[in-house]
Amino acid sequence: MKISEKLRSFLLWVILAAGLVWAWQEGKMDPVIKTGREIVFGKPPQKPTVKDFKFQPVTRQDIHQKVLATGTVTLKTGAEVKIGARISGQVKSLLVKIGDFIRAGEIVAIIEHEDLLSRVARFQADLDAEKARLLKILAEGPLEINKAMAEREELQVQIKLAQKMLMRNQELNQKGFVSTTVVDEAEEKLEVLKARINLANEELKLKHSQLQNDSRLAQAMVDKAEANLNVEEIQLSYATITVPIDGIVAFVSTQEGETVVASLNAPTFVTLIDLRKLEVTVFVDETDIGRIEVGQNAKFTVDTYANKFFNGKVREIHPKAVIKDNVVNYEVILDIKKKKVAKLRPEMTTNVVITTGTRKNVLTLSKEAVKRKGKKTFAVMQVNGELEDKPVELGWRDSGQIEVVSGLNEGALIGIPNKLLKKRRKGRRP
After folding, report:
1. How many Å apart are CA 323 and CA 358, to the nearest integer?
2. What's CA 332's distance to the chain center, in Å?
3. pLDDT tens across 326-384, in order?
4. Chain CA centroid to CA 306, Å
5. In terms of domains, do 288 and 148 share one?
6. Number of domains in the chain
7. How many Cβ atoms from other residues are within 10 Å of residue 416's Cβ?
């Protein structure tokens, strides 16, 4: 015969009640209550023993005070260059794409420039013509001057001869050998020659002045033609677009065949960044900013290379706060040591540790060895086979180590709970 579930439950409760009545009558309720309490609440914790700890000595080492913060890899001023066209026209050739590494002076694009070539050729011809005109003036002008000078010298010779002839005729006239008419003719001839040489001197001055004016005007025309040609050559050079720095193409906003229009601001169609010019912008909490100084060393990681540490140094501390979500931070700029900077990219998130101070050769113990009761701190020691809480005063914290200010001596064995050791080993990162 099968017993129903309700009957089975009723019989169990009857047996249990009978057991409780018997225990109460015999005065044996304590074991029952204890067993019930353990069933409901579990067994009470056992007092730890020496076997529950691993003991490590207090040692001396350098300990560092650090500030933890987050930040972002950013570009330095001048690390980003926007390349654009300074003339309007159709993009004839686009020679780069995103991700290309190019060096300073390399060509990234060419704008259609056939009209500029023809203008340059025309202005070059104008310049050549003006130079030829100047050379002709400089060549012919001195010849005309030399010719005039030769004529003047000939007149000077004739004047000397006329003067001698006049003096001779005057002497002969005094002796009665020639008439006064002859003397008058000699004087008239001398005066005519003097007039001619005066005219020759004026013509020579005029030729000098004309040569100067003509050469000056011709040189001015040459200069103007050169200026016009230079303008067109500069415009022509704008058709070939080069880059001023080494870098990686980060952005391209045009394509071959597209027409670009130059204005006061050159339209940007290629953006170049120099990944060697990176820095880290760190956001330091207002409670920590007072400990930050220029020149302090720092280490940081990025999510992409979580197990790689990059070295940096504090270069700037911005005085103006950055407030976001009611949290006050201050921007601190880190210079990055160039050894590993090529692995980094702008806008990468960083986890930064800035070393703000160092205490050398101080007593330290593991943070797992510290036990707290209220505001007091203790370290567990073994005394005569028993555990004893030793009061300690602690100082700086550095990763897993804490400075011991007082309460312990070097070499003292301090207990670390085995459970914490297992947990630490399990959670240890590679």
Report:
1. 30
2. 16
3. 889 999 999 998 766 668 889 999 999 999 888 899 898 888 888 888 888 988 888 77
4. 24
5. no
6. 4
7. 21
